[in-house]
Amino acid sequence: MVNLQNQSRNGQDVIEDKILLEVNGLKKYFHVEKNQILKAVDGIDFTVLQGETLGIVGESGCGKSTTGNLLIHLLDKTEGTIIFNGLDMDKMTKEEMRKSRADIQMIFQDPYSSLNPRMRVKDIIAEPIKTHTKLSKKEINDEVNRLLDAVGLDRSYGNRYPHEFSGGQRQRIGIARAIALRPKLVICDEPVSALDVSIQAQILNLLMRLQKEFKLTFIFIAHGLPAVKYISNRIAVMYLGRIVEITTKNELFEKPMHPYTESLVSAVPLPDPTIRDKRERIVLQDDIPSNLNIPTGCRFHSRCPYVQDICKMKEPSLSELEKGHQVACFFPRNLN
Amino acid sequence: MVVEHKNSDQHLIDSKTNGSSWKIWLKRLWKSKTGTVGLLVIFIVILTAILAPVLAPFNPNEIDPEKMLVPPFWSEGGSIEHLLGTDNLGRDILSRILYGSRVSLLVGISSVVLAGILGVFIGLISGYYGGFLDTILMRIVDAFLAIPNILFALVFLAVFGPSVVTLIFVLGITNWVSYARIVRGETLSVKEREFVKAARAIGVKNMMIIMRHILPNVISSFIVISTLSVATTIIMEASLSFLGLGIQPPTVSWGGILSDGRDYLATSWWLATFPGLAITITVLAIIFLGDWLRDILDPRTKG
């Protein structure tokens, strides 16, 4: 496990300098009853480089899953631009749109409800191929077998139904479906949070192996830092529909600048008791405010331990304070 | 992991024993005793309907004034000649039941199929697309529910004239609303499941999603309801016959024989009892068959 991590994460040989996805000012508002507006995603900007894994973390309701759904067009955005592979998604022709659908795929959170119980595994995996290509039956069958091999499932499993598999195996089927079209970008929407801890590591390792093999780019959405820490190159922290901090994994864990990130990092369990005891645990007060009633000024000020007057009046913008380290805070921590 | 492998070995053995798909179906049918009985009874009923001219001892409309209201053969005064007795005009009841099965099965099953196709289609469309279309379709359903079935059927048959075709049509039209309601409800819940979201993310077209992902997951509740309603349809045909707007004589139907026998219920019980029994047995067999069909369509109950 450690070995794998060193090879693919620290080597960074697979990451190219090319921007695959660029998101600018992305917003998604939902109209709920009594003319209230739920601001699920409230203006986020980020870029994803070809071959990297961008982790997105945040509490439930922070907009991370909505962001994923916007990227694969399961939801229509309210505002903002998404530029994928150099093309603005709003200006795409129908054919380009179809192609881009094949290029962005998703791995879902719940391995139980994400597979149709009435379809055989081979048909589930073949569905994206049938939808986007005109291969013959035999070619599709060969491709399905290759995909089963790639995700570590026996070829004979293709004739079975999803209920015959365990959670981890089902997630492998879901992964095979997601990579069937050799997409450029795979959005992993909490793919391991429904699995046993022992299976989680297997799935994460599988994802990292496939990333190398198929030259994939991942956006990895999770609600906790540990899973994201293992797989990501860079991590974006979201809070109430906004990105509050985005930087490389090591930087984020060593020098978290936003007070929210700082408290998240301090909450990650550590195996070494001597380090653990020395660490200062920052426990946030109160619950996360409602998306229907976002605080004025900095949206984190109501829970921030370092809050000042300005924080209640003005909203800080996400700005690059150090190279490759963007933070939205007036009083960032750990600044050189 | 160890446990997983054990399981998978078990599955391997299972899949090796699978022969041709016909054999598997027969095997699974045999495992369900009620399903076997249901299928067998339906088979016999259909066979007798087809072979009625061969099997029936008499012409079903042959009147014999000398042998009116003869009881079944085991009762006092009964004869082997008329196994189930005769009616008030001296017609052989057994022959009438055999011939009656033709119309009753045809009307019962065809109208349920018609109602099913219409109801399932509208339910799927309404539930899947939602919004304005859903509102419109469901108001139409409400309107249909507000009209008493029998009244609608009477008006319809009075206007278009009673015949087998109009009867199938009118019974189909009055029944589709309940299917539409049920299928819509099921569709609403199934379309929120993640595999539908996954299909949309892949870029599968809406019609394909409905046919491939939603329909197979809503069909089981439809099958249960539709087998039950074959029964009510046969009864409904009987009530329409009783009101004089069902199948017209000389064509025989179970419902018709049943309503003919009503006047003699107190004195000659066999007139209404035997067609009633025929309906009960057929309906029961259809329900058994429906239960079995629902089970085998669900891969989770396989084996």
Instruction: Give the helix/strand class of chain B.
Output: mainly alpha
The top level CATH class name of chain B: Mainly Alpha
Compute the separation of the termini of chain A in Å: 34 Å
Count of DSSP strands of chain B: 0
Strand content of chain B: under 5%
Q: Specify the CATH architecture of chain B.
A: Orthogonal Bundle
Rg of chain B, Cα atoms, Å: 24 Å
Question: What's the total number of strands of chain A?
Answer: 12
- Rough outline of chain B: globular
User: How far do the termini of chain B sit from each other?
Assistant: 24 Å
Helical residue percent of chain A? 25-40%
Biggest β-sheet description of chain B: none
What is the spatial order of strands in the main beta sheet of chain A? Answer: 6-7-8-3-9-10-12-11
Would you write up a description of this structure?
The complex is a heterodimer of chains A (336) and B (303). With 336 residues, chain A is of the alpha/beta class. In chain A, 35% of the residues lie in helices and 23% in strands. Chain A has a single domain, classed as Rossmann fold (3-Layer(aba) Sandwich). Chain A is built from twelve helices and twelve strands. In chain A, the strands form two sheets. Chain A has an eight-stranded mixed β-sheet with strand order 6-7-8-3-9-10-12-11, sandwiched between helices. In chain A, strands 2-1-4-5 form a four-stranded antiparallel β-sheet, with helices on one face. In chain A, a hairpin with a 2-residue loop joins strand 9 and strand 10. In chain A, helix 4 packs across helix 5, helix 5 packs across helix 6 and helix 6 packs parallel to helix 7. Chain A is globular, with a radius of gyration of 21 Å. The N terminus of chain A is likely disordered. Chain B has one domain: Orthogonal Bundle (MetI-like fold), CATH 1.10.3720. Chain B contains twelve helices and no strands. At the A-B interface, helix 3, helix 4 and helix 6 of A face helix 1, helix 9 and helix 10 of B.
